Amino acid sequence: MRSEKEKMLAGDLYDASAPELQAELGANHRWLSRYNGALAEGPERWHALLKERLATVGDGAVIRPPFHCDYGFNIHLGAGVFLNFNCVILDVVQVHIGERTQVGPGVQILAADHPRDPAQRATGLEFGRPVRIGRNVWIGAGALILPGVNVGDDALIGAGSVVTRDVPAGATVVGNPARVRG
Predict the structure, then answer these.
(1) Under DSSP, is residue 15 helix (H, G, I), strand (E, B) or coil?
(2) The domain at 4-180 falls in which architecture?
(3) How far is CA 152 from the centre of its chain?
């Protein structure tokens, strides 16, 4: 029988209230407290702290505190990635952000999802769908990237956009829902 963590990592329905996952959340909250408390310490210290918790942290990757995430261990940052203040990543499954991608303040990258059927949703089970953001992407302030979305290399996502579908490489998308701008 698989653990709730194994189910979560596989993208299957899982119980987030399971003791094993609550312990992981507690460990991450303690790390986030240290990370967010390091605001005055600067990028070198932030980078060192990121390497303690995240799956992959490329050279020169920076996340300006405050930052919030579910677990941390599912987040992969390429070299030179920059996330501005107040970003949120719900990383119940893998979230990849490619090299030299720039993310504006208040952006939310959401891999966590919930069943659409109300009876199933009422059970409290949830699941995740991986998010992949390519290289050299620019995501404007306050944008939302929804579960399962893939963003191609060199794309641009306008501020405040809600990205519900994959974004082709080199495309500019804006709006709610985000649409390719010609």
Answers:
(1) strand
(2) 3 Solenoid (2.160)
(3) 16
